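Box 4.2: Ligand-aware structure prediction
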Amino acid sequence: MTLPVCPLCPQGVGRGSKDAEASRTTLCQTDAGTVLWRNDFCRVVLADEPDYPGFLRVILNAHVKEMTDLSAADQSTLMRVVFATEAALVEVMQPDKINLASLGNVVPHLHWHVIPRFADDPHFPNPVWGQKTLHGKRHAAPDLMQLATALSRRLAPETESP
Ligand SMILES: [Zn+2]
């Protein structure tokens, strides 16, 4: 039985299969996307969502499925990064709302979506995965350097491994 390669695992879950090494390169390029911040525990990545500039994902480095599979300390560490990401987006983009979501139905590897929302964006007030509205518009992309700096400033104490 071959395990599917997890697109969020730097090492891939399918390691051991012949394809693992090849997948790793391809999937890392796709999924690592633009990494705005990272440490040994997790990473903050810019999602490739054209309708949603500033859509970030906080991805745990280890292949873990549920929050409750983590120790209490690791749960807190991960959420501190999620909240720092939210705060950085609020500072840089001043959205009307931040949406936090952890689904993992398609990719069962812990990751949080941190999505800046605007009252006139393409789906508001629906979730970004819901029904598009007719009047929504795409917002300007944030300055990635500014975003990365805002993240680093908040996460500086986290750069030591948890
Ligand atoms: Zn994984």
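In the box above, the bound molecule is zinc ion. The beta strands are 34-38, 42-46, 56-60, 97-101, 111-117.
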